Amino acid sequence: MRITAHAVGVDDDEYDDVLEAGFAEGEDGSGLAVAFQRARSAPTPWQGVLRDEDDLFDNTYCIVVGGATVYGGLLSVEFTAPTARFRFAPEDAAILRLGDSVLDVTFDASPEELAEFTTMLRRVVTWGAPSQIPRLTGL
Q1: Sheet with 135-137, edge to edge strand ranges
Q2: Which superkingdom does the taxonomy of this entry point to (predicted)?
Q3: Is the pLDDT of residue 54 over 90?
Q4: Model pTM score
């Protein structure tokens, strides 16, 4: 799947206790919108213990697309401004209704916006269960 993201942003929200990096096709957030989130107050580095391999809630980041949420599931990000390739675990891509486990994104954003996005994305997806931390290239 290939899209152009005309909206890109980050949120460091103390009140709602969330760190978020996201993008959307439409400038108004319409079209495909993808958000990567984790708890702001979570200890860094992660100090949790997984009871089993499915115990990811509160133990990793989440990915939200159109009301569907998965915990972990991002395998890799390859970033070469202004493009990125996101690879998702196939079962998580299906839950998120992405149609494919690879999402190629061309960002229509300023270098400053992309720098903020990539910094926050790294902060979000490198927290949590080691099995869920994706391979990051160019971030």
Answers
A1: 2-5, 102-107, 83-88, 74-80, 135-137
A2: Bacteria
A3: no
A4: 0.92
